[in-house]
Fold each of these.
Amino acid sequence: MERDLLRQSVSYHGENLLSLLKCEQNENPDFKNVAADLAKTLNQRNGLPYASEVMQYKDKEDTSPVLEQYIARKADLLFAPSWKSPTPVDEWQEESGEAYAIMPPLEQFMEVSFEERREFFYRDVERGDMLIGRINSVRDFGLFVTLLCTAGGLERDIEDLEIKALCPIRNVPSTGNHDDPLSYYQIGDLIRAGVKDIDRYHEKLTLSLYSSSLATHLNKVKLGVISKEELPLHYTRGEMVATDCNETYEKLLEDSLGLSNPLNVDYLMAKLGISGTQTPSLMRGLQSKRFKEEDFGTAIRKKQSVSWALKCVKTGVDHFKSGRHVEAMNEYNKALEIDTNNVEALVARGALYATKGSLMKAIGDFELALESCPTHRNAKKYLCQTLVERGGQLEEEEKLVTAEGLYKRAVVLDDTFREAAEALEKLQIRIQKSLKLKEQEAAKEQEKSKTVETSAEKLRKILKEEKRIKKKKRKRSTSSSTSSDTSSTTDDDSPSTSRKKSKKRKHKRRRSSHGSKKHKRRVSSCSDKTLEDDWFPAPPNTSASYINQKQSITKLLGEGEQSWGKSRSEDGRGRFEDGTDRSPENVKDGSRLGGPDANGEGASGRARNRRDSSSSTQSEYSHKSDRFSKECSSQGRNRCVSERSRDEKMERAERYSRDQDDGRSSVGSLKKDLPSNLVDIFSQIAEFKKDKKQK
Amino acid sequence: MSTQASTTVAANEARGRRSAEDVENSKTHFRVCRFIIETGVKLGMRSVPMATACVLYHRFFQSASLLVYEPYLVAMSAIYLAGKVEEQHLRTRDIINVCHRYFHPDSEALELDGKFWELRDSIVQCELLILRQLNFQVSFEHPHRYLLHYLLSVRSLMNRHAWSRTPIAETALAVLKDSYHGSVCVRHKPQHLALTSLYLALQTYGVELPRGEREWWQVVCAEITKAQIETIMSELLQLYDMEAKCT
């Protein structure tokens, strides 16, 4: 119990109250502590020398017994420390719009006497308050200000008190231009200043124009000279009241705009620190601790929503069991409208989605259900099953890594779910197997690369010769997009390659990209540069090996001579146009290029991987690829003999597209691939040559 | 006949004479108002809509008889109507839920069945009945905003530390809220009620305000007399006594 408050109350009301309090509150342990104190206070009050006067003063109003009775009964509430709500300390703002009616100080209406007002002012003013006054003299040690009114919270009627305050020069900020700061101020100016110091005994006030002298909640306010418009509203209204004696407090209040603001009650309650919905009460039955959480409207509504939603889910499940999926879905959606994120509804809807095949939606629903209720058995079970199913689907689509992720999640969720664990194991084995296969192939290619090297060397020699011949011719055409030279050169080779073309066309298989033609072109230019380079070692990236395999197959598909000739004629033109029948040829060409000259092949592979074309370089490819195509095609054919599973090819295709930007690796990988392809190609070329000779 | 009844009741109350029936009625009214305020708290109603609900109820039974109309239904409809009038719309579903639980503590929430719809229909129909009974005059002036403005004015008279340690605002608002248990809220002007609750709060703590030519309450309300304040105060305090008898 607040001791001081009780003391104040008891000394105000007298002994009757004390005796009543003792009566009513004798069970209250808090009161017992204070009771002794109170008795003392009363005795002191009665024993004071001027006690009789005090009593007389008090006798004007005899406290009614009913009031005392009420105070005594409710003392445990009234004087409880928790009864007082903490005052909010908010930033003082200029009341621009009238959220509530701002009234002049009550002192003015009450016509409190001069002396009392002065006394109360000096009692209540504190450091950090804001005052407004008029300068009445400027001395060299400071400004003398006659106070006009208070500002920033304290509201008093002090104008006629003619209180003078000093603002010493050290508290006046300089205006910056090295003049005497006081020269800025004139007699008669209105200034707003903060109270720096008070001498209550001598009734002296020291002001300051620095913002630091203000209390923290006021420190945004500008101090210094102000205009008449900036005078606080309570003062201006007070002036109005002083001049017009018809203006009473009531009338002023009724007429003010702020009173009609419908939200002023909430605003003012917040200003005073009282909650709008939890207003205090002195009735025993309305004390806040008597209210149970679950009796509140929102709590009941939540539980009711859950129960209503469950009803819908039940009917939905019935529909589902009888096969009426549409109605079931409707019921589930209705349930989720009533209660969003209802666990049962989500699980049921997820099951329905899973049955219908929309596995991703089902997984989404189950995950959501598990978020709100992580221990829901059905949700977990269904989620596991759906994850496994989805994993199976992904496996078929060759998205092994994603599938693995799903299986792992399923296993984590429910370790007793054997299927998931089994599927995960199977998948992991499969991944390992495929990895091993890749490695094996890579190893094979590595071996083959040695045997092929000899033929590669042969090709290299041939290439060098040709290069020398053609360099002269080619110099002109390297940069230009159109090259008549190259076309002429290509024309030279056309008869030889035409036969190859036709043969290649017969063996069409899967195509490679359009760009491979351009890649071909590039390859030749690259091969120009790279002829002298060493053969690049195979990179560790096994996936790249697939690219070569694929290319080898496409090589086989494409028919060398035909594509060859075509590619030549393509010089300088947009190669994009002739897509399909070029592409196998292109690939073949590319692969052919790679064959004899490992570098060249690598370059072609790289070119193949890069989809962008530079027609300028493409012309260069043509004659190079001529040579290569013959050799490569034969190898390609042999290559295709070595069977691989379709799946692997698909995977390779995937990785092929992935590795497009990886020029070097693809080059290297291509080289790895070449050896085995080259054998095929060489045999093919040999065949063609025989044919030619025959013809 | 109804208006006669109300004037007799009022006259009797003013004279302090109350028949047994009146006493019984006022107890019922007390209980029902307690029900309204409790429901209001559980629904998160603000002070002013809650006050409107109580005033609607009191005004209704000034001219209607308790024998004819079920007071709790009127109370529920009054809450619903007050929410609409004071722009704090409440759903009938929430009102029904809270009231049902008030009468059947710890029961399960109602199902969305025929009974629920019937309850809802009766609330809506009673709402129309209240409107007609009150001639569609359902917007009232409440003491709250006056009280808050008076509090600010009185605060300026006091020393800030004295103000911050004395819970005057809380007590005054509590007294005002509790005044809605009885018909005192409809028999006096809102300014007078506000003034009296503030006066009571100041008296409770023995706060002494400066005195000028006029007392603070004379300034705030020009024509009020001390006697009037005392009368209203005693009526307010009687309500606290009633609590012991009714609950």
Amino acid sequence: MLEVRGVQARYGDAQALWGVDLDVAAGEMVCIVGPNGAGKTTLVKTIAGLHAAAAGSVRMDGVELTAVPGHKVCDYGVATVPEGRRVFGHMTVRDNLLLGAYRRAARRVYRETEEEVYRLFPRLRERQGQLAGSLSGGEQQMLAIGRALMARPRLLLLDEPSLGLAPVIVDEVFDALAAVTRTGMGVLVVEQDVQRALEACGRGYLLIEGRIVTAGTTEALRSTDEVRQRVLGM
Amino acid sequence: MNTVQVVLSGAMLGGLYALMAAGVSVTWGVLRVINLAHFGLILLGAYLTYQLVTIWRVNPLVTLVVTVPALFVLGALLQWAYDRLNIVEFNSLLVSFGLLIVMIQVAQNIWTADHRELPRDINPFDTGSLSLGPIVLPYDRLVCLGLAVLLLGGGHLALQRTFVGRGMRAFAEDRTVAASFGIDHRRLSVLLGGAAGASAGIAGMAFMLGNLIQPSHAYEWFGIVFAVVILGGLGNLLGTLFAGISVGALSGLVGVLWSHAYVPIAVFAAIIVALVLRPQGVFVRRRAV
Ligand SMILES: Nc1ncnc2c1ncn2[C@@H]1O[C@H](COP(=O)(O)OP(=O)(O)OP(=O)(O)O)[C@@H](O)[C@H]1O
Ligand SMILES: [Mg+2]
């Protein structure tokens, strides 16, 4: 479904990605791990069309996304849960969710999707009328995921969803991600919590200094020297 | 009784301030453009109303059929250009001030610097009034208040309840995330600019109902309109409506108790006090906890 080939990205003169190859199929959860500053966020932004690729291609079901303007990428089935959650703090929980369904195809079925999101995260239903800025960190993360699901994506991108959350909440978040993966959605998750990511995902990529250094099944990754040294610190 | 009369009359006039402030508030709040040229659009709306009423000899409300679409297009073009040239905040203040000067000059060339007013025999709101016991409500001000309630109330509902309105609020908070959900800043600029332009047309017409117009009026509106915008809270139309009414009522009260000369001092003193107490805007609802 998602095919990333030879993607490079720059910030001015500084190159952040040096030719990244990566695939995500429908119904699989894939992780990207790597040390700070490796380019994980840049990669997510480039796939989502929020940062222009300097070279290479990003395809969704064969459609080239690097040529599509940022606000149209969601129409090709990509939704993002950004680093730091970035919910709309002055808007209510429900308004955040409905905003997620802004694109035309999602708007038509927003009631059904909203129900699905509330079933996945019952706390959001309880807090519908509350301003998003007043939610706890965990609830904001659930809201950011719910908002992305409201766009009815085929591919969900998540940038460090567990950051700063209590372990129980992280469990809840990963359970929800596993559930949406079972519905056939592709999930690409950037994680700092490498143990957790390797447990939850079938496959993974190790990104270091803008390059994919190792790729493969999580068992294979776990036993790689590079992952042990550079990320797990063992 | 005289005091009640004056306060009510001022509050109704406050509807006019709110109409003028609405466009400034939304383009500033959502698009981060401080559009001083908006006052030029109001001026244009006023003169167009004058011109059409004089030629067609119709009720001034009828001219909205022409002025609203015309100013929608102008307002949309203006925001489209700002967006294209990446003009926001401080830049927009400079650029739009330049535009305003040009617009005032153009108005002066077409309509001269002399006062213009709607022909009294055609303006049905000029002299009539509604009497409620001892209280007299002049028609022109009633229309101002009525239009303000309709326009700002309707705009508020649209911002709160529709997908596009939600998109605008989201864009105001975080452009990048809003874009990732399909919100196109170009379309949004044109749409909001058009809506602001249309509101300027309505404000210009409302102004003409009870006032004379001359080009330099555009400068005179600055103070009170910005006061209403800030008090109401950027992008908050319901707040702007209440702020307009309050400023109008306060002006009336100071005028009758004290002197008209003190109105500006009193209004701005009140605003400074109010903003010290509530810096987020006086009519902004507190964040629910
Ligand atoms: N807006 C920016 N301008 C300039 N350089 C940037 C910008 N954003 C990121 N970089 C640089 O690009 C590189 C990759 O950054 P990126 O944020 O993608 O890393 P990351 O893997 O997400 O790190 P972290 O784990 O800390 O989130 C870093 O060297 C960073 O300094
Ligand atoms: Mg990052």
